[in-house]
Amino acid sequence: xxxxxxxxxxxxxxxxxxxxxxxxxxxxxxxxxxxxxxxxxxxxxxxxxxxxxxxxxxxxxxxxxxxxxxxxxxxxxxxxxxxxxxxxxxxxxxxxxxxxxxxxxxxxxxxxxxxxxxxxxxxxxxxxxxxxxxxxxxxxxxxxxxxxxxxxxxxxxxxxxxxxxxxxxxxxxxxxxxxxxxxxxxxxxxxxxxxxxxxxxxxxxxxxxxxxxxxxxxxxxxxxxxxxxxxxxxxxxxxxxxxxxxxxxxxxxxxxxxxxxxxxxxxxxxxxxxxxxxxxxxxxxxxxxxxxxxxxxxxxxxxxxxxxxxxxxxxxxxxxxxxxxxxxxxxxxxxxxxxxxxxxxxxxxxxxxxxxxxxxxxxxxxxxxxxxxxxxxxxxxxxxxxxxxxxxxxxxxxxxxxxxxxxxxxx
Amino acid sequence: xxxxxxxxxxxxxxxxxxxxxxxxxxxxxxxxxxxxxxxxxxxxxxxxxxxxxxxxxxxxxxxxxxxxxxxxxxxxxxxxxxxxxxxxxxxxxxxxxxxxxxxxxxxxxxxxxxxxxxxxxxxxxxxxxxxxxxxxxxxxxxxxxxxxxxxxxxxxxxxxxxxxxxxxxxxxxxxxxxxxxxxxxxxxxxxxxxxxxxxxxxxxxxxxxxxxxxxxxxxxxxxxxxxxxxxxxxxxxxxxxxxxxxxxxxxxxxxxxxxxxxxxxxxxxxxxxxxxxxxxxxxxxxxxxxxxxxxxxxxxxxxxxxxxxxxxxxxxxxxxxxxxxxxxxxxxxxxxxxxxxxxxxxxxxxxxxxxxxxxxxxxxxxxxxxxxxxxxxxxxxxxxxxxxxxxxxxxxxxxxxxxxxxxxxxxxxxxxxxxxxxxxxxxxxxxxxxxxxxxxxxxxxxxxxxxxxxxxxxxxxxxxxxxxxxxxxxxxxxxxxxxxxxxxxxxxxxxxxxxxxxxxxxxxxxxxxxxxxxxxxxxxxxxxxxxxxxxxxxxxxxxxxxxxxxxxxxxxxxxxxxxxxxxxxxx
Lengths: 411, 571
Ligand code: HEM
Prior knowledge:
The complex is a heterodimer of chains A (about 400) and B (about 575).
Chain A: H1 3-34, H2 40-75, H3 83-105, H4 112-127, H5 143-183, H6 193-200, H7 232-250, H8 254-275, H9 279-302, H10 310-342, H11 351-371, H12 378-401
Helix pairs in contact in A: 1-2, 1-4, 2-3, 3-4, 3-5, 4-5, 4-9, 5-6, 5-7, 5-10, 5-12, 8-9, 8-12, 10-11, 11-12
Chain B: H1 28-44, H2 46-65, H3 73-81, H4 88-96, H5 106-136, E1 150-156, H6 160-173, E2 177-181, E3 195-200, H7 202-229, E4 231-238, E5 244-245, E6 253-256, E7 269-279, E8 291-301, E9 308-313, E10 318-320, E11 323-340, E12 343-349, E13 353-354, E14 361-367, E15 373-381, E16 404-412, E17 431-439, E18 443-447, E19 450-467, H8 471-490, E20 494-502, E21 509-517, H9 521-539, E22 542-543
Antiparallel strand pairs in B: 1-21, 1-22, 2-3, 3-20, 4-6, 4-19, 5-7, 7-8, 8-9, 10-11, 11-12, 11-19, 13-14, 14-15, 15-16, 16-17, 18-19, 20-21
The complex binds protoporphyrin IX containing FE.
């Protein structure tokens, strides 16, 4: 195949193929999530849906990897040379790593949908930065750089998964708090909302909210306990559970969420306004990114009642971010080694170096907050969300707005 | 705090701790001491570290958004002039606050100091506690198992003593710290039931965290001493021309650390034999015009040794006697000969630098030997093939397949030494333009009585020579940092208790295996299951259902920071 054919094949593999597969898998998984509170016939359907979702996700990861390989062949180099390639690989690591972690380590496949959705959003964002395949400057072509960039990109992908968990934690926590506040005015607020709400539920609501952190996989109550015939008690309990779910959802004010997400996204996406050639083009990208994020947040809000306990989500976020933090640390050190080798100085406060340091400090703040009494819980999660905004903002600013030595934005 | 009842007789009140410094009094000394104590207390709080980290992040954010003087002085200038950035007014305010040089500002230095003070303040008690812990701590015995602990029940034919011994051996094998209170007269048991208590992960986790935080001192020391001991110098060399010797005077720019001395130079000599550079020349190929190779072939002559050839590539600096040599930049080097009245006033290779826009290379000839002075403003276009009209067509291509030199000739006063001027730039304030011409290699032209010839085109390379003795120490600090971090984040503290008791009536022994993780409950759940399985293997036990109902919830020991996150009992 010629280089051109390889290039267009890689493009098709990326979008629409991978994008559609990720989105499809995400929605199948999200559907499966809604069945975890249903009766056994429904749960069986959910399990089948999860299997379909798994197939779609594996297919999506396969086409994504194929895209990376074909693109690498088209330009005869490792595809990590520009922002499109970096963002694309970030999505790949986030999806593959996040799914593997949820599926095999934490055994919580029902959350896969959110990771896939996040990956699809990143994938779509990379399209905003699409660049045709091309060679790499010789100064960039060194083992240290590949090591450094791969680690940082991997860490970015995993930080993105951590951001998803932190966001879900905040949604669920907000919902539980407002339900708890509404039900019992006397209940004092608590950072671990789950325990209190669990107490407040009269019925045994199988949402997982009363299952504490280290409990078994969500929704794996013995199947046999689900009688097929429905007695009146059962019906009342189901109605109660449904009402509880509706209350949880209503506990997250939609307008406030939409506005908050818009503003939060704007903290990052203003870069497209600055970088665009015309204001109209910039505005179009800015609004697209922001509105897609708002839509994703509202979608996630709809699934709030089906989420596992806040302690589980918090734990997922922490472990994910801790892992990525180690990767980031090693990656930054590798970057200093590369700089020493290529430019003869290991650290020069170049915009990218500054940005990576800032991200590192922000996530160190998250880890500290999580280990500090009186700060952990919501505040720590907010710091985690803020750290991801810092990560994305420095990534985009250092590439689009200020161009330093590391620059590959123009290549 | 205990309450004090002033109406009651003194002996009825609880003992009050005497003030720390009873001799302090009310004087200024007391005030200072009290402030220091309070400051130190404030410093030891983790929350303070969090605030300081946030402040550090904020300053770094400023440095990300606002151009920094040491990195991009040109951009800072245009911000201050108002031609870029938020406008001259705001930029002036930014300049006053030091935002253009965050890392050199006093605020940044003060913050760094505070961070290290805070680090020290929180490490001193932590290290003390850690040492105490390692010296004295024993896994605590349990009176009754809490509801939040992971439990498993086994039943075996071994006796309780045998079961305890087996459990202790098993846990010791797995490098747990074991306290065997299995015998009825075990020391310190008090009224607690016979048991084997074990703990692990605490030293590793806390030790890792300490290592991580201590690595900052190593890094700081390496950076500070590095600044003092380092050396960096730049020097350009033309292909085939005489090289330079590593001495203080031969560098074009010379930046030694404060403790770097003349005697630290190694005295080797370097000559540039050839410089290879190439590009993607096909204008339709992806990445057209991008460079693909930068490689210098050099000859190194040690002060008392034989010359040897070496290569410096774009990512492969050459190391000579501990000094690293990098290629920093390069350019074309035309040799221009200028004769006035039959006398050669200039004959050397120039070091032309890439001009603004990147289409040409620019340099200058300064010949003060003529009367009046001769100055040439020189533009070099490396690829300017002849067009249809027989004149060079200037292209922006950087390869030297059809080079042409365009000179503008000035006469008058060069004002050398009077004004600031770089070697590639003429100060035309005392000069008058008299004419111009273009030349190809090998050509000679005459402009108003001055003969200019362009016999040869070569290339020059700017080399950076550096000595950074701190690098091994930085690597050592980084290794401590990463190693400590991994331990701090992945090691987890957990306790295990094995309680064996005779089963009433059957003569068999019931085993209760209870565990609690202070971090990573998920990981511990699996480990607990493995330990239970191993213990069952070791004692020939089988799973049992507990006969007695769960004992009332009672924590055997105060839960630590991230206690178990409420692991439910699995039956
Ligand atoms: C100077 C910058 C600092 C950085 C980058 C930093 C970074 C970190 C990180 C990443 C952790 C997480 C590791 C763990 O969970 O054990 C941590 C933990 C910790 N840090 Fe720092 N730290 C800094 C300064 C400080 C200071 C000044 C203090 C004292 C107030 C402090 C106190 C602690 C404590 C007590 C922990 C233990 C948390 C735990 O055991 O989970 N750190 N630090």
